[in-house]
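thread from #wetlab-drylab

HS: before we spend reagent money on co-crystallization trials with NAP, can we at least see a predicted complex? here's what I'd submit
DV: go for it
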Amino acid sequence: MELILVMVTSLDGRTTRGTESDNHTWTSPEDQKHFMDIIENAKLIIMGNRTYEPAKENMKHREGRLRVIITRTPEKYDNEKISGQLEFTNESPTDLIKRLESQGFNEGYLVGGANTNTEFFKQKLVTEFWQTLEPKILGTGNGIVGDASAGSAQDEEINVSLELKTCEKLNDKGTLLLKYKVLQ
Ligand SMILES: NC(=O)c1ccc[n+]([C@@H]2O[C@H](COP(=O)([O-])OP(=O)(O)OC[C@H]3O[C@@H](n4cnc5c(N)ncnc54)[C@H](OP(=O)(O)O)[C@@H]3O)[C@@H](O)[C@H]2O)c1
């Protein structure tokens, strides 16, 4: 499966402002459009539960697009799931990707957050990383991987090399869209 991680960060590598739920008020309209274009056209989107929860009220579901939410307690979401469109799972990332491949998916987008990305990187499942780099310095907040509340311990098993494929300037102030291939 081609699994593309899509994230927006500040120049200092932050993906959130502080520790609060984040509504991306610091990201540019051009990045928001880039992200919405991906979501509109995707057949498969995977995310962690702490990314899903604050965003779920604004999510639209439709046939032909499956969102998979990773949580330790999928049974809590029995009332929210929508067959073929929204599912909740506690499968390991490797088992999840194998199952989705057997269902015919050959491309998907992983959209965070840092805790979930960490698991997918550790299990060597991410094949591309599309990073929007906003010309901002935020000072505090999560990174692309790890858990800000747990120090850097989670990052120790991660050492990923990537190769830049393309670099696109999205606006006059210099928001950059960097597309990397993950070298396994
Ligand atoms: N800048 C960006 O591009 C971007 C992108 C995405 C998210 N974000 C931000 O990042 C924040 C969320 O990131 P986060 O790192 O705190 O959380 P997260 O990765 O979105 O979600 C973490 C949750 O996912 C579940 N989970 C993760 N790994 C699991 C595993 N191996 N097995 C079972 N369940 C697992 C757990 O859910 P349960 O607690 O339910 O068990 C865990 O609490 C939000 O503020 C969001 O807005 C930013």
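DV: The chain is about 20% helix and 30% strand.
HS: ok that's useful, forwarding to the group
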